[in-house]
Amino acid sequence: MSERKIDEATMDNVEILAKLALTPQERQKAMDEMEKILTYVEKLNELDTDQAEPLVHILPDVNVFREDEVTNGDGRKDSLANAPKAKEDQYIVPKTV
Q1: Residue range 34-46, pLDDT digits in tens
Q2: pTM for the whole thing?
């Protein structure tokens, strides 16, 4: 069998980073699964992607958002109309200490 891509040091690092505490059996199973994943990824490298264009998004929409435009004003005068007391576009409230 060829040299393993996932060695004990790599697995130690994975366990630390993922905060795992694996039994020896779980550790061996995880190493075998990671080996299979890496083997599959290497197989993908065999594909000829020279003619493939990069994909930014699967939908053809460029920008579905509208421009940010104010359509109804700030509503300040309507808000102040409901205030019990107002002066110079500000609420008048009782003094608090």
Answers
A1: 999 999 998 988 8
A2: 0.48
C-alpha 43 chain-centroid distance: 28
Give me the phi and psi of 87, to 5 degrees please.
-150, 130
Q: Three-state SS for 34? A: helix
Looking at residue 43, the DSSP 8-state letter turns out to be: H
Q: What are the tens digits of pLDDT across the range 60-87?
A: 777 778 888 877 777 888 888 888 888 8
Burial 32-44 (b: 16+ CB within 10 A, else e): eebeeeeeeeeee
* Contact criterion met (CB below 8 Å) for 5 and 40: no
Q: What is the DSSP letter of 56?
A: S
Cα–Cα distance measured from residue 21 to residue 16, given in angstroms and rounded to the nearest whole number: 8
- The span from the CA of 19 to the CA of 29, in Å, is 17
For the chain, the straight-line distance linking the first and the last C-alpha, in angstroms and rounded, comes to 81
